[in-house]
Amino acid sequence: MYAWPASEVPALPGKGRDLRIHDTATGELVTLRTEETARLYVCGITPYDATHIGHAATYNAFDLVQRVWLDNKRQVHYVQNVTDVDDPLLERAVRDGEDWTHLAERETALFREDMTALRMLPPKHYVGAVEAIPRIVPLVERLRDAGAAYELDGDVYFSVASDSHFGEVSGLDAAAMRMLSAERGGDPDRPGKKNPLDPMLWMAARESEPSWDGASLGPGRPGWHIECVAIALEHLGMGFDIQGGGSDLAFPHHEMGASHAQALTGEYPFAKAYVHAGMVALDGEKMSKSKGNLVFVSQLRRDDVDPAAIRLALLSHHYREDWEWTASVLERAQERLAHWRAAVSRPDGPAAEPFVEQVRDALADDLDAPAALEAVDRWAALQRAEGGSDMGAPGVISRAVDALLGVAL
Ligand code: 5CA
Ligand code: ZN
Question: For 327-348, what is each residue's pLDDT tens digit?
Answer without folding.
Answer: 999 999 999 999 999 999 999 9
